[in-house]
Amino acid sequence: YGGNHGLEMTGEGWRYLHPAAARSRPAIRRIAGLLDRRLAPIGGVGVEDKGATLSVHFRKAKKKDIALTLETVEDTIEPFRKAKRVRTTSGKKVVEVRPAARWDKGAALLWLREHVRKGLDTEVFPVFIGDDVTDESAFTAIEKTGLGLKVGNDGKKTAARYRLSGIPDVRRLLKTLSAGQWEPIIRPENYSGFTPVSTSRN
User: Fold this and answer.
1) Which is it for the CA torsion 162, 165, 170, 173, positive or negative?
2) How high is the mean pLDDT in each 10-residue block of the chain (202 residues)?
3) Are 97 and 31 in contact (CB under 8 A)?
4) Mind giving me the DSSP string for 135-190?
5) What's the number of CA atoms in the CB half-sphere (13 Å) around residue 72?
6) Helix or strand (DSSP H, E) at 8
7) 44, exposed or middle or buried, with CB in 10 Å at 0-12, 13-18, 19+?
C-alpha cells in the first residue's frame, strides 16, 4: 500500500517513510492549524491533514470564494515554502502541501519496483491506474517499462498508453486480473476495455 504520493508505503513485513516526511511533519501540522482558522469563514472548503501531507479541498466552495481561498492558502504557506520546509502542487479542486523533496508518484513507483524486484529472478512490470494530474509523473516513469492507464477522457494530454472510460471498467479490469487472466497486460492492444490514448484525445 502506498499513500501520500508514495511518501508512505507498506508491504508484507516492511514499511517506508520518506525522510523528508518526518522532517516536515511539524511544519505541516502548523500549517493545518493556521489554515483551519483562516479558511473557517469560507464555506465549502476543507483542510485535510494526512500526516505526511496536507490537502485543501475547495470542490464544494462557491465560485466567488475560490480566488479568496487560493489567496489565503498561498499567503499562509509562503513563509514555510521560502524556508524550504514544504512545497505545493495542485490537483482537481485541491491544493496539496508536501515536504520540500523531489518526490512524486513516479519516483515512488520506481522505488517500489526496485524494492519488489530484490531477490527475484525476473523483471517487475508495473501497472498504474489513475485519473488525476498528479498521476502523470507515474505514467511518465513507466512509459516504456510498464503500463499506464488513465481513467476518463478529459481531453488533456497524458503520458498513459491507454484510457479506461470510468470506474466500472477499472473494476472489470481488476476482476479479470485477480482471476489470473493476464491477457490485458500481455496484449493490451487486444483488450476491449482499453482505448489507445493516441486516438482518444480531443
Assistant:
1) negative
2) 86 88 93 97 95 94 96 96 92 90 91 89 92 92 95 89 95 94 92 80 43
3) yes
4) GHHHHHHTTTTSEEEEES--S---S-SEEE-SHHHHHHHHHHHHTT--HHHH-GGG
5) 22
6) strand 8-11
7) middle
Residue pointed to by grid coordinates 472510460 = 165
* Overall pTM > 0.70: yes
- Cα–Cα distances (Å) from 152 to 96, 114, 143, 175, in that order, read 22, 29, 18, 19
C-beta atoms surrounding 116 within 10 Å = 12
Residue with cell 499562509: 76
Residues listed for the chain: 202
Distance CA 7, CA 17 (A): 6
Which three-class secondary structure state does DSSP give residue 142?
A: coil
**Per-residue DSSP letter, 193:** T
